[in-house]
Amino acid sequence: MPAEDDPTQVNCEVVLQELKGFAKAADPFLDDFNEQFKKVHESHLVMQKKLELKKMKLDNKLGGVRGWLKVSNVILAANCTSVILCGLVSDVVAAAPEVAADLAAETTKHIATTGTWLRPFCSRYLRMKAKKQIVEDAFRGNYVAIQDLNNIKASVDRLEV
Predict the structure, then answer these.
(1) For 79, what's the count of Cα atoms within 13 Å in the CB-facing half-sphere?
(2) 86 assigned to some structural domain
(3) In a domain, 34, yes or no
(4) Model pTM greater than 0.85?
(5) Measured distance CA(82)–CA(96) in Å, rounded
(6) What is the pLDDT of residue 151?
(7) Number of domains forming the structure of the chain
(8) Are 43 and 30 in contact (CB under 8 A)?
(9) What is the DSSP letter of 27?
(10) Is residue 30 part of a domain?
(11) Using an 8 Å Cβ cutoff, are 2 and 11 in contact?
């Protein structure tokens, strides 16, 4: 385009021809773009709902596992207390060493059993907590993607006007 201060008839015609060329170039955001954009946006919204449901299910499961962990910890504490009390009672009564050894061995078996019973709950809790963290990260990432899509749509709408 000529860059003169006073536009002439020729300059105006050149500018007018370029503007017509832009108009003939068609809309850069065709219906195909809008359809594909809507599909992507809707798929992100569906994914967000699925992630929210998954997160709620994991929260419920984690609540149950937390409850069992508390119960297991109480049982383990009671077993440990019983071992200590049995040791004290055998010392006070001054029972024969064989009786004290048998008593300690019996209570130790129960503590070991409780420990093996408690271990799967702890590992299950940690696995579920890791899954929940992954779902929360995916939820946040999907939320950001939806916000970006909303910003793109707003920019496209401004350009179409």
Answers:
(1) 19
(2) yes
(3) no
(4) no
(5) 19
(6) 92
(7) 1
(8) no
(9) -
(10) no
(11) yes
**Does residue 38 form part of some domain?**
no
Written as one letter, the residue type at 83 is V
How far apart CA 69 and CA 74 sit, in angstroms, is: 9
Please check whether residue 107 is in contact with residue 86, taking contact to mean a CB–CB distance below 8 angstroms.
yes
Which tokens hold the place of 28? 């850069």
What's the domain range around 86? Answer: 55-134
pLDDT tens-digit map of 7-49: 677 777 787 777 676 656 666 566 777 888 899 999 999 999 9
Q: What does the DSSP assignment read for 81-134? A: HHHHHHHHHHHHHT--HHHHHHHHHHHHHHHHHHHHHHHHHHHHHHHHHHHHHH
Spell out the residues 6+ positions from residue 46 whose beta carbon is closer than 8 angstroms to its own. Answer: none
Model confidence band, residue 143 (pLDDT cutoffs 50, 70, 90): very high
57 band by pLDDT with thresholds 50, 70 and 90: very high
